[in-house]
Amino acid sequence: MNIALLDYGVGNLHSLAKALVSPGHRVRIASSAAEALRADALVLPGVGNFGAAAQRIAPERVALHDALLDGMPCLGICLGMQLLFEASEEAEGAGIGIFAGAVTRLQTERVPHMGWNQVDPHDDAIFTGTAPLVAYFANSYVCAPTDPAATIAWTEYGDTRFPAAVRRGSTWGVQFHPEKSAAPGLRLLHNFLAAVAP
Questions:
Q1: 65 is a catalytic site residue
Q2: Has 74 been annotated as catalytic?
Q3: Mean pLDDT of the chain
Q4: What pLDDT score was predicted for residue 24?
Q5: Residue 134 has pLDDT above 80, yes or no
Q6: Which of 60, 74, 78, 190 is catalytic?
Q7: Would you say the pTM of this structure is higher than 0.85?
Q8: In angstroms, rounded to a whole number, what is the distance separating the alpha carbons of residues 28 and 186?
Q9: Range of 147's domain?
């Protein structure tokens, strides 16, 4: 299976690419959404600004939306999860829009949220063998899907409880960084690949 890791033009993607490597899968960094759409599965990484990333995907935004709705497997990580929504308070620009709902600034005393937090998952194949899942977060914005059933995990930071993961069909989003979350995070990445393998 060919996995495309979409490069928004910022950040170091190599640790995530390395974490995704497993037998039977080839990981390539795609410099454009058009290139990424030629892969079997898509990973949206968690580094960057919503506005800049939205601008980068704009030429292929509708094609990305349609491909994901048609079942192309996708995992959005941190910013990548937020790009699966329609828009964000962080900056102007349109997200892919697989999820309806808000992406808003985290309402806590200390922002950004940087560090390790307990993740409370629902029953979903992506979390198999990850318990207890204490994951690494680095975010100033959080997602709130309109459909409560879309949330498949929660976490808390300060007095705020927010979705740690969402799912719609073959599209998952996680607000944390599995590639930085030790063995349980790596297991989650491999669970994603196993869940979407033909």
A1: no
A2: no
A3: 94
A4: 87
A5: yes
A6: 78
A7: yes
A8: 18
A9: 2-196
Choice among 60, 74, 143, 179 that is catalytic: 179
Tens digit of pLDDT for each residue in 80-98? 999 999 999 999 999 999 9
- Residue 114, Cα to own-chain centre: how many angstroms? 17
Residue type, 54: A
Half-sphere exposure of 196 (CA within 13 A, CB side): 25
**Could you give the 3-state DSSP secondary structure of residue 178?**
helix
User: Domain tally for the chain?
Assistant: 1
Q: Are 124 and 191 in contact (CB under 8 A)?
A: no
- CATH code at 38? 3.40.50.880
In sequence order, which residues have a C-beta less than 8 Å from that of residue 170 and are 6 or more positions away? 68, 71, 72, 73, 74, 196
Q: What share of the chain is helix, strand, coil (3-state, %, to 5)?
A: 30, 35, 35
For residue 3, the cross-strand partners are 27, 41
Own/partner long-range contacts of 66-69 (Cβ < 8 Å, ≥24 apart):
67/37, 67/42, 68/42, 68/96, 68/98, 68/169, 68/170, 68/171, 69/98, 69/169
What's the mean pLDDT in 168-173? 98
Nearest to 160 by CA among 115, 123, 127, 111: 111
In 3D, which of 134, 33, 150, 158 has the Cα closest to residue 102? 150
Q: Is the pLDDT of residue 9 over 80?
A: no
To the query of whether residue 179 is one of the catalytic residues in this protein, the response is: yes
